[in-house]
Write a structure and sequence with these properties.
By secondary structure, the chain is of the alpha/beta class. The protein contains 7 helices and 5 strands. The structure holds protoporphyrin IX containing FE.
């Protein structure tokens, strides 16, 4: 059922998102997740995590809060039903907004790239362990031939 109102690629400015923060007379609740705009007004009462957590982000970017919860892939796919547009390019780099695709593969920690390229302590620990092992092998070898 495609109609003009179903256009998920309508370009929406951040100031328009900010107006739909529940306090507006229309009572709408819009949020931004990775550069996409969602109208979650009707979803609030259905949200398994409760209304309040989403309401706190009404009219704002909720990407970090959404990711912090560790939403399931099902939850991520559900967001599609509420997308009403994309954030204007010029507004994507403003503080507090996150760009990027909202696809399953983009969930932090979900892709092998996040692990391989993450600068966490494990990336330091593994080379360090190899270094120590090489040192002891070398020490053992020099003792053998001494
Ligand atoms: C369109 C947007 C959203 C959808 C479709 C959605 C969907 C869901 C679903 C399906 C769950 C059940 C658990 C899961 O499957 O992961 C859930 C739980 C939850 N969500 Fe959302 N959510 C949305 C936005 C948000 C936002 C913006 C926040 C935070 C500010 C949030 C916070 C939570 C919390 C705290 C839980 C409970 C987690 C738990 O009990 O372990 N959600 N959400």
């Amino acid at each position: 059922m495609a109609s003009a109102g179903d256009d998920k690629n309508r370009v929406i400015s951040l100031s328009e998102v900010e107006k739909n923060n529940l306090s507006d007379p229309n009572g709408n609740c819009w949020i931004v997740l990775r550069g996409k705009v969602y109208d979650v007004t009707t979803f609030l009462t259905e949200h398994p995590g409760g209304e309040e957590v989403i309401k706190e982000h009404a009219g704002k970017d909720a990407t970090d809060a959404f990711d912090d919860v560790g939403h399931s892939k099902d939850a991520l796919q559900m967001t599609d039903d509420y997308q009403i547009g994309v954030l204007a390019e010029t507004d994507k780099n403003k503080p507090g907004t996150k760009t990027g695709k909202n696809t399953v593969g983009d969930v932090p920690g979900d892709s092998w790239k996040d692990i391989v390229f993450s600068p966490t302590w494990t990336n330091f620990l593994i080379p360090a362990a190899i270094g120590i092992a090489v040192y002891f092998i070398y020490k053992g070898a020099t003792r053998l031939f001494a």
